[in-house]
Amino acid sequence: MVNFEFTQEQKDIQKAAREFAVNEFTKERGEEYDKKEEFPFELWKKACELGFIGVHFPEEYGGAGLGILENTLIVEEFCRADSTIGSAIILADFSSEVVMRFGSEQQKKEVLPKVAGGKAITAGCYTEPEAGSDLTAIKTKAEKDGDEWVINGTKTFITNGTIADYFIVLAVTDPEAKPRYRGFTTFLVKKDAEGLTTNKIGGKFGIKASPTSEVNFKDVRVGDDAIIGQLNKGFYQVLEFFDESRIEIAAQALGIAQGAFDITIEYVKQRKQFGQPIAAFQALQHRLADLRTQIETARLLIYKSAWNYDQGRIDPGLTSMAKYWAGKVAVKVCDEAIQMHGGYGYIAEYAVERFYRDAKITEIYEGTKEIQLNTIAKDLLGKFK
Q1: What are the residue numbers of the active site?
Q2: Ranges assigned E (strand) in the chain
Q3: pLDDT band with cut points at 50, 70 and 90 for residue 348
């Protein structure tokens, strides 16, 4: 049986997320955080206090024991209310899922309650200057020295890098492994680790309230207790996490698309040209109808992906389709939103230009749209020798 109805709890979560975001994520605040390139710490703490962050964490670690679908509903509503603030807050727990799914009991108890409680922010350190989409090409190394591991390397385009309290770091631990990704391990590194430094990457096109940085590791020492899960299993852990995070980014894109669409619907009803609201013109009506259809198809694909993941199934093809399509729709909707606003769409007053700038990243991070197409094709056709 296929049931497209949310449970009452899911409806309540969606409603609460919407009400909180609409009331708190004002356009003025969004513009301010965008202009100053500052993370919305106060709003993030409020979101944590109300239980919106880490809702998918088990209850014993500060969460609500819910699933990816419930988290998806929150992400969508946050980014719908404001693309800038929403995008920053929903990624404050980025990569904490690696700890949740693979970490030791000690690691889980230390990190997860703090993240859910608004006392810690996490960052995933995977991408490198010469290893963007090709995760197998990373060069950061962790070498054993007595009872410690010494980490050296550079990660780039790291979300939350300058504000994170914990870093989940993927490093090479067995250089002789064949294929080489079988020699990768993830480590949990604290922000005060000696030799760890960060450099903010400024001047971004969008998501300016979500800090992006370069993270450098110079002889950073950690013990065996910093290993997440099993030695040399890091690559597989990160791939599984990406399957989950693609859904979150797809929900981010969906929220941004819906938010820009909401603004546009209000505008075309009020804006008059040639003696009538521009919404009365059939050519514009057809464009709006097409956009609404694309948004709804993205929503169904994302909800299905989230539900499927909550059933314990890993399906890279499905989650890649969700992210690919949602990102594409977000950019398309925001582009049309600006066009329908005319000259007003090009200035900050109506916010759609900011939504457009924030939308574009959803086609880039967590795997570019081209990488998503590769994954979908591989799922469809299998491997070629």
Answers
A1: 366
A2: 122-125, 141-145, 148-159, 166-172, 184-190, 196-200, 212-223, 272-273, 276-277
A3: confident
Mean pLDDT score, 237-253: 97
Run of H or E residues at 293: helix 282-310
| Under 8 Å between Cβ of 97 and 244 | yes
Nearest Cα neighbor of 321 from 223, 253, 382 is: 253
Coil/strand/helix, residue 275: coil
Q: Dig out the tokens for 28 from the structure.
A: 């003025």
pLDDT-based confidence at residue 1 (cuts at 50, 70, 90): low
Q: Quick one: pLDDT at residue 385?
A: 58
**Residues 352-360, mean pLDDT to the nearest whole number:** 98
Element (H, E) at 125: strand 122-125
What are the DSSP E strand ranges found in 230-383? Answer: 272-273, 276-277
* Domains defined for the chain, CATH in brackets: 8-116 (1.10.540.10), 122-232 (2.40.110.10), 236-381 (1.20.140.10)
Helix axes 352-359 and 83-90, enclosed angle (nearest 10): 30
Mean pLDDT of the residues in the chain:
96
Q: How far is CA 104 from the centre of its chain?
A: 24
SS3 content of the chain, % helix, strand, coil (to 5): 55, 15, 30
**Which 8-state DSSP code applies to residue 146?**
T
* Bridging pattern class, strands 212-223 and 196-200: antiparallel
User: In the chain, how many H helices and how many E strands?
Assistant: 12, 9
Torsion, CA 77, CA 78, CA 82, CA 83, rounded to 10? -100
Tens of pLDDT, residues 36-71? 999 999 999 999 999 999 999 999 999 999 999 999
pLDDT at residue 152 is higher than 70: yes
Q: How far is the C-alpha of 314 from the C-alpha of 311, rounded, in Å?
A: 9
Burial 32-67 (b: 16+ CB within 10 A, else e): ebbeebebbeebbbebbeebbbbbbbeeebbbbebb
For 359, the token pair is 């939308």
pLDDT of 303 above 70 = yes
End-to-end CA distance of the chain: 39
| Three-class secondary structure of residue 80 per DSSP | helix
Hey, what amino acid is at 218? K
Positive or negative CA dihedral for 186, 189, 191, 197? negative
DSSP-derived letter for residue 37 is T
